[in-house]
Amino acid sequence: MIKYLAAFVFLFTNLCIAQNNITERIRTHLDYLGSDLFKGRGTGTTGGNLAAKYLAEEFFKANLMPAGNNGTFYQYIPMHAYKPSLSSKLILTNSNYNDTLFIDKDFLIFQISEDFSSNRTLDAVFVGYGINAPEYDYNDYLNINVEDKIVVMLEGEPSSDDITFFEGKKETIYTSLAVKLRLAVSKGARGCIIIPNPLNNTPAAWNYLKQTYSFEHLSLAYSSSVNLGMIINFQKASLLFNNSKYSLNDVLKLTKDHKIYSFPLSVKISVSGTYKRRDFLAPNIIGKITGIDNNLKDKFILVSAHYDHLGIGEKVKGDSIYNGVFDNAAGVAALLELANYFSKEKTRHSIIFLLTTGEEAGLLGSAYYTTNPVVPLYKTIANINIDGISSFDSVKGIIGIGAEYSSLQSVLEQTAKKNNLSVDKIPDIFYQSEAYSRSDQISFANAGIPSILISESINYVNLSYEEGLNKYLKYINDIYHSPFDDLSQPINFNAFIQHYNIIKDFINILDNTMDEPEWNEGVFYLIERLRSRAEKR
């Protein structure tokens, strides 16, 4: 009995030492990446490049094989950055008046165009919510010509209590500004102006938008935009409707009565101003390990996390460094520890560890990787993306964002069972149909690779549902994408290590599964998977 007790004590002591070592390494990574030294790890900035160097050195220490350019860990990506000048103006012209609106005070730019400073005057049309959704028998573009015009539209989508119409109270993908602009462009429009929800017509709401869009506008060098996306301050939005068939108040009443429709505006619109442009290279960091199974080592599991954040932005309470500790220094620290762990293990599949840049600017690093992969896409069996790590409290459940689209759901269920966890859904209060599209996993999905982001549930061990919900809401409302996502935040390392172990178990179970993950029948991404296999791409 004493012999068995001594063995138990020995194993337990070693386990505690190992966990303490992991915690210390994670603390070190967070202290580095989240510090002011890296100035928020902005893409293509000195801080971002310093972070990249640190990460490449960590991959080297973990004995990963370099998989970037020319035998290095770096995959360099050519990019553009644009920043409109503070003298930029939006000019509204009518037969009876001429109004000049000023950037930051009266309007914001969420996507800048190459011909931003052309001073071209364009006609304008109002297009409701700017949505075409055949599945809901809804089309704001029906019987309206928007070609070579600026389209004016309302934020959001039609309200409904009917779950079969725009998902009822839940948001659908049609609320996305990027989706609205893309649709407008596909109809021939030169740009769009978004009118914010009048319920959010407060100085605080406008300051939040100002803070959000105060950063440079980044794009891949080969995909420069020629279309302009703007948000008008609600206080000035009524000017767009002067001398038109309906006023803004009329439109809002029609919207409330579900009788909204599109119509031409009397106003003509031009933008006056200049912008600063810079061209630069920013790196993804890529390392890999080779599997030992001769039948499987030519198949790759791709583990990713974005290391960039927003950099230097609008000052909030005297602080202008957007450190991005939870988003996503935490995810990077977890990936580094996974790389350290799996480099010492004998995995059956090969594993690629990818740290992407430019995620905050539109998933640029992951998009570039999928057109310039270091191994063929069809040989990459799955992507596990890490964007944020549980840091409030240990959990009783996990959420697999995107798991429902593929057989990765089965791997998630096996992982949950091993850890005595439930598989939960995104709570309705946070539900967004584009949740799968909000981080790098969507780039890999669009390239045909079954992809998942494993997130914490709000089903916490030591917090009630209400306490957990309030913590999460406070983070989203007060900390996320602000200078306060920094090292002053309390981090529950037991929760962090639990989440890390869940991802590690998921990778281990996937590695020991003989069958490749497959998209479910009828899922959009399946077509690209079949194409990449057929073309051996």
Brief descriptors of the model:
globular, alpha/beta, 31% helix, 23% strand, 537 residues, ten-stranded mixed beta sheet, eight-stranded mixed beta sheet, 13 helices
Task: Explain how this protein is built.
With 537 residues, the protein is α/β, with parallel strands linked by helices. The chain is 31% helix and 23% strand. The chain has 13 helices and 22 strands. Strands 1, 2, 11, 14, 15, 18, 19, 20, 21 and 22 form a 10-stranded mixed beta sheet that branches. An 8-stranded mixed beta sheet has the order 4-3-13-6-9-10-12-5. It has a two-stranded antiparallel ribbon with strand order 7-8. Helix 1 (2-33) packs across helix 7. It is globular and about 75 Å long.
Distance, first to last CA: 60 Å
- Percentage of residues assigned to helices: 25-40%
Strand fraction equals 15-25%
Low-confidence stretches: 7-15
User: How many helical elements?
Assistant: 13
The helix/strand class is alpha/beta
Major beta-sheet overview = 10 strands, mixed
Give the integer mean of the pLDDT values.
93
Please state the overall shape, judged from the principal axes of the Cα atoms.
Answer: globular
Oligomer: single chain
Rg result? 25 Å
Number of strands: 22
Please write out the topology.
Elements: H1 2-33, H2 46-61, E1 65-66, E2 74-84, E3 89-93, E4 98-102, E5 107-111, E6 122-126, E7 132-133, E8 138-139, E9 150-154, H3 177-186, E10 191-195, H4 203-212, E11 217-220, E12 228-232, H5 234-237, H6 248-256, E13 263-272, E14 275-289, E15 300-306, E16 311-316, E17 319-322, H7 325-342, E18 350-356, H8 364-371, E19 380-386, E20 397-401, H9 408-418, E21 422-423, H10 441-446, E22 451-456, H11 465-479, H12 493-511, H13 526-534
Parallel strand pairs: 6-9, 9-10, 10-12, 15-18, 15-19, 19-22, 20-21
Antiparallel strand pairs: 1-14, 2-11, 2-14, 3-4, 3-13, 5-12, 6-13, 7-8, 14-18, 16-17, 20-22
Helix pairs in contact: 1-7, 9-12
